[in-house]
Amino acid sequence: MSDLQPLDPLIQALRRLPGVGVKSAQRMAFHLMQRDQDGARVLSRALQEAVDSVQHCSRCNTFTHDAVCPICRDAGRDAARLCVVETPADLAAMERTGAYSGYYFVLMGRISPMDGVGAKDIGLPRLLERVADGVVQEVILATSFTTEGEATAHAVTELMQGRQVQVTRLARGVPVGSELEYVDLGTIAHALVERR
Amino acid sequence: MSDLQPLDPLIQALRRLPGVGVKSAQRMAFHLMQRDQDGARVLSRALQEAVDSVQHCSRCNTFTHDAVCPICRDAGRDAARLCVVETPADLAAMERTGAYSGYYFVLMGRISPMDGVGAKDIGLPRLLERVADGVVQEVILATSFTTEGEATAHAVTELMQGRQVQVTRLARGVPVGSELEYVDLGTIAHALVERR
């Protein structure tokens, strides 16, 4: 039977990618084998190399090739401030603003009871260690403004209680460049309450 | 810079999959590295093995581990009939019907001028060779009933002109189990013209 469907192992492996069902996996396998075998080789190598060489930064928990990532190695940043984000992509977005010069901590996830991700499954114990260095004075919560991101922010806030650290949250409000007419009501209500 | 984005090579490789943009690729890379490193290893191996060991059947052009696929090796089938399909998935669908006992030829694509796929880019020359064996009496066109599938069927029909081979096409009509009210008008019109 297996030789009747020689691409089956590849199709099954592709289905482990998030958002890829059996039809997409079949299309991908066919495309790679028929039109882009070079792409299949490149992807195979990239997967193996990522698994072999990418690790977590021992200070901020982001993905890195070294034991400590370039940002954490940069001694010129403001060590009193620690920005807590969900993912390396969020860290990259913060960096692109050019408005932040402190260090980061990457949770590598967010609390999501629906997906079985609790407070223990994200990097909270390591965050606690990181904050206990006596230098961090402010923890800036930059988790998403979604139910799950807010739950994560709440868990971090609770974790910091009783410690000599100020906990702040990114401001909620109307996005730059938007017309009020098209902004959702919850955002406007928040912006009104938090007006300054 | 590269160590700031250690997953970039993986993200770029994932973007070569059809239908995967940069956001999906980032999500896939993050998922594999953070939640399913075993999946990354499995996928890496499956890609490499597929590229290394899967080839085209020398008779019907489908994917196979051997020089000749199991269906073409099966001497008990009706050698007078050859069913032309676009992909191995279409071949599998025909087999699942249990209603066909002839052999197959898999074009591995269809004519699609929009994607730059012309008559020369699909397996037409090899089909011509296959049909020239003097045993095939009927070529059954089972390409898709889309513009591209019809164009492909037309190209095969032209190719067969002047040869001692009858060319037939799967019947167009109302799908089994459907209520007329919900069938598109083009299908009903075809079913009416081709009534029997």
Automatic annotation (TrEMBL), chains A, B:
One protein family per Pfam: RecR_C
Gene3D superfamilies per record: 3.40.1360.10, 6.10.250.240, RecR Domain 1
Molecular function via GO: DNA binding; zinc ion binding
The organism's place on the tree of life at top rank: Bacteria
Annotated PANTHER family: RECOMBINATION PROTEIN RECR
Function: May play a role in DNA repair. It seems to be involved in an RecBC-independent recombinational process of DNA repair. It may act with RecF and RecO.
Record protein name field: Recombination protein RecR
Annotated source species: Comamonas aquatica DA1877
Classification lineage: Bacteria, Pseudomonadati, Pseudomonadota, Betaproteobacteria, Burkholderiales
Gene name in the database record: recR
